[in-house]
Design a protein that fits this description.
- The structure is a single chain.
- It is built from 27 helices and 38 strands.
- By secondary structure, the chain is α/β, with parallel strands linked by helices.
- The strands form eight sheets. An eight-stranded mixed sheet has the order 4-5-1-9-18-10-14-13, with no helix packed on it.
- The protein starts with a strand and ends in a 7-residue tail after the last helix.
Length: 906
Amino acid sequence: MKIRFQIDYRTQWGQEICVCGSSEELGGWKESKPLILRPTTGETWEGEVETADTEISYKYLIRDQGNDFMAWEHGDNRHLRVDGKRFSEVKVRDSWRSANDPENTLSTSPFLQAFFNRTTKQYKVKYKDGQSYLRLQLNAPRIGKDYAFGVLGDIKSLGAWDEQKLVLMSDEDFPIWKVDIPVGNEQLPFEYKFVVYSLKQKKVVTWENANNRYFPLTDFSDTSKLHVHTVEKFDYPVGNWKAAGVAIPVFSLRSKTGTGVGEFSDIKLLVDWSVKTGMKLVQILPVNDTVATHTWIDSYPYAAISVHALHPIFADQQAIGKLKDIKLQKEVDAERKRLNKLPEVDYEAVMKVKSRFFKASFDENKAVLKSEAFKTFFQENEDWLVPYAAFSYLRDKHGTPDFTQWGELKQVTPEELKTLCSPKAKHYADIAVHYYIQYYLDQQLKEACAYARQHGVVLKGDIPIGIYRNSVDAWLQPRLFNMDCQAGAPPDDFSISGQNWGFPTYNWKEMALDGFKWWRHRMVNMSKYFDVFRIDHILGFFRIWEIPWEHVEGIMGRFNPALPVHRNEFSDWGLYFDEMRFCKPYIRQHMVYDIFGNHAQTVFADYLLEYAPGCYALRPEFNTQRKVKEHFDILLQEQPEQFDFYSWIRNNLYRLLSEVLFLEAPLSSGQAFNPRIGFHATYSYQELDEDTKRKLDELYIHFFYSRHNDFWRDSALSKLPMLKEATNMLICGEDLGMVPASVPGVMDELSILSLAIQRMPNDDREFWHPSDTPYLSVTCTGSHDMSTLREWWQEDTDKTQRFYNSILGQNGGAPYYCEPWLAKDIINQHMHSPSMWAIFPLQDLVAMDGQLRRVFPEEERINVPAIAQHYWKYRFHMTMEDLLLQEDFNGLLRQMIDQGGRHADY
């Protein structure tokens, strides 16, 4: 059979269009052996092959052999099935699928697995002899299961525009719709349109919005030739697809049967509520295991000891089964009921009772490990499960997750790991119990995910930008991480001294050597549970804020990668490079009195050395922030009653050490330097002459706002495409903070949704107006790192007054409290925004109801980023069961979603 390919595409000089596919004649998917098409008239490329295959898959690519450039078209493989007995030739007419089309997002997992998931039917055609046929194909995933696409036209074969004679299309190859229609030369040319047909109402409900489509004069005289024409888009008259979602951490969910914390089974209740209100998405925080110290500090969800293992706290004990030990089961039940009455999560008490249950349940049910279901789970997850269980065992054995203190096992070989986890080992039960817990966690989260999909709702997960320093991943593969550095963020509204998250940064060069295998594995594992995911701090894929180990505060960090300023470059800016003045802590006598007041003499005596009259340096034992921290950690342990005083002294010593204008760039041997972020606030800068200040300002602005634009774009494009290719999940990026100019373009190019938070815009405006948000975005009223809508309203009355007048368009003075009607107006603005998603913290939604919301808004806060060790213990104050019964509130929310155009069937 001959297959002739034809496609329109405007190439650059030296490029060629190729087809690569499953058949041998198309290269057998070998990129080096595709069918090279030839240019014909205009922008059309053609080529043909002879093949015995009647069913093939294929895809187009661009190649430029001179520059080793190659790019595949976007999307899944194309498929072609032909009755080889009926047709001896196929002429295929395609259009290039651009990677930059916003509608590409509609072919991602949430749409194909949940919103538009359908049971397809096999396509069968009875061809007439002596008749030519045209196969019309439409690439259109955006359609509900109760609808189908059809086609109408001005020829008899297409119903002559009569809706009663509609030609329905087959969904066999969904999201490609197809139909073979008889066409003769006498019917050409013709006009046609695609339509949406309601399978329930048995009628056409929507016509395409565009002008009639046109099929040109073509030779159909050869009846053994099948013509295949593919259209890439349906023009929807209802505009872009939009939906709404709710955001709340799993630990914050409350149900009547919980153990004082939200569990994976509670997600089903939230899904039920989402269905009732018209929500399509449930967004949660990371759910990986963070058990490191067995204290409340482990409540921090972004410090996972494994990027794969799930947190035991989310397991539903009752779903695992009651204990045979009746006395212990009664004790567990009593504690469960007590904890469930608490207003907040008591992390340590919850983990204590759950750990007792897991140990007893495992001891009673070890036979589960011999079941076929467990064997399948183990086989599919062995590569991460065994190291995780070993790590958890060694953590408890040594009383610390810091594997550098584990003696001979601070580094482990595959052989040592195998021996450690051998079923013959005496401690095997202490390892296998972690297999047991993870087996049930995996089962319960998968059930919640499947339940959500079945009800047209998807789960949105969260990927932290970093890994915990004392984690399985760092233990097994330290080469993948810069263990001598810490990830964080420069100063912002959350913290004037910046943030230090403590995570090691990624060694991207090492990760790239195996094609980012670690990341790909992480993505694939996450796709078992989620259809959408949020990249926490996506800016880290462009450049990460990296703090050397010797420093503590984020303000002492630098961007990595970066293009530091060479010492010879300073003269280009009209500056004399005075290394002592620019790069060493600038500490003068008057400063010490300014900062420390009555305690200045103590600081002079205990911490400083005078190297010139009135000029000081920190003593060698205190000349880095890390040394200062370690000194005061000991003092605070010995004298905890002096916490406030010692913390004040420590933090101001940090301030002295940060009195620098430039920081030496790593691996530069003192030849290159990075400007210290925010150096304008230092005494060092303020006490310079005005001319030097002006020149430093020019260098500073150039460095942080233009020098790296192309450099960071290239950095992101070497990593982010890999994340998209790994799975079909829809990707959202948290792009808040100091955003490089190249970020929006890269995210648009890769169809990664941006984040638009009204009171934290990415430009110089004070507030976003939701109507200004782009389509490929998620608009939100806030995040877990921010105060809730109600608390924010009371934080700065001047700011809320401006918001009240300029954004809400209200006259007069703003109410002191965020009244229910105000919350409703704000949420309504977001509902009507152009963004694909409007996602709201559950606390902000119930703010619309004066009877449902909490009395004190400060009790709704999830996290305070300025507090390094914050206790993540927020619980929603109502059970999900009770929330489901709030008919007035739920009805209001459903109405707002409908009116905002966020609840369409297609």
